[in-house]
């Protein structure tokens, strides 16, 4: 099914969804905000086919959410994908989705919440914008999601 082009729509929600309305885009953003930059790691964590991931990464670069940065791989030059300010500015949208999902959807196993870690102070916060422990403002650079289900699946 083909999607409608909303890039020129007068509604800012429609224009935003034209860029980030695909679930893979939001999941790639989540991983990029957690520090993932390499194609192989995105593929491993997201369990996504190479062609799907390649297409989404290219779209996200074109949309200005990520930028390619060349680096020397083991045998050749490769690209890593670095989050831009535009991508980092979507953190509140991811926070809202996480809170909504915690409240209105059922986890497949026992309830395991996604926590927010204030990196520089090394403690948890119940708020995504201001640390509930120390009161400092939180940005994408100084906070990270703790996903207990990811640690469980990686044997941690």
Summarize the structure.
With 156 residues, the chain is α+β, with helices and mostly antiparallel strands.
DSSP, total strands:
5
Rg over CA atoms, rounded to whole Å, is: 17 Å
Beta fraction:
15-25%
The mean pLDDT is: 86
- Helix-strand string: HHHHEEHHEEEH
Helical residue percent? 40-55%
- CATH third-level topology of the largest domain: Arc Repressor Mutant, subunit A
Task: Please give the domain count.
Answer: 2
**Which term fits the overall shape?**
globular
Helical stretch tally: 7
End-to-end span in angstroms? 40 Å
Q: How are the strands ordered across the major sheet?
A: 4-3-5
Give me the CATH superfamily of the largest domain.
Winged helix-like DNA-binding domain superfamily/Winged helix DNA-binding domain
Low-pLDDT ranges: none
Please give the CATH class of the largest domain. Mainly Alpha
Largest sheet: 3 strands, antiparallel
| CATH architectural name of the largest domain | Orthogonal Bundle
Describe this protein's structure.
- It is a single chain.
- The protein is α+β, with helices and mostly antiparallel strands.
- It folds into two domains: 12-88, Arc Repressor Mutant, subunit A, CATH 1.10.10.10; 91-153, no CATH class.
- The protein is 42% helix and 17% strand.
- It is built from seven helices and five strands; from the N terminus they run ααααββααβββα.
- The chain has helices at 12-20, 23-33, 39-46, 50-62, 85-88, 91-104, 148-153, and strands spanning 66-72, 77-83, 114-118, 123-125, 143-147.
- A three-stranded antiparallel beta sheet has the order 4-3-5. It has a two-stranded antiparallel sheet with strand order 1-2.
- It is globular, with a radius of gyration of 17 Å.
